[in-house]
Amino acid sequence: MVNYIWAIMAIGGIIYAMINGTMDEVNKAIFKSADDAVVLAISLISVMVFWLGITKIAEAAGLLKGLVRLAKPFIARLFPDIPKDHPAMGYILSNLTANFFGLGNAATPMGIKAMEEMKKLSGSPKASRSMITFLAINTSSLTLIPTTVLAVRMKYDSHSPTEIVSATLLASIISFIGAILIDRLFYEIRRRKERHV
């Protein structure tokens, strides 16, 4: 559906430019945007490589294992349907840790694997309680360091690119808590409806 919306917007923009006689400006904007996108992608790659390296160092030093050990009791309470030693729990913790350090691209494969493992565990074609909770938490994305935003701000010569870190952390904590509360609220509503049926 989103692809159709983008296609309609692009075709509409081109038709509008042809009617108004501004096709030259549209062509210039397309090529400039493409050039900016390549430059931005390369600058983001360098930042991602740096933070992935820092994460590897933290992993080798045992910091990530410590963080996982610290978070495991809390995560086990969020996902009571998943046995503590199930592979899905490891993928969930890895995904949340990567998101915590702002490494969304590194977190995605872990999130997909976690969903696959939870699907195997539930054995149902419908999304399980744990899958819904994981999706809600992942959407809220608790983030300590917003690496992608910092990279974009640095690329465009922000005077103080790191000034957003505290605001981002606060906003992500609020969205994380909100996601958990809303998930639990809807779970309770659904459970009560099933009881009365």
TrEMBL record:
Pfam entry (one): Gate
Record InterPro entries: Gate_dom
Transmembrane segments: 6-23, 35-54, 88-112, 132-152, 164-187
Keywords, in A-Z order: Membrane, Transmembrane, Transmembrane helix
Segments forming domain Nucleoside transporter/FeoB GTPase Gate: 42-151
Stated name of the protein: Spore maturation protein
Species this protein is from: Terribacillus saccharophilus
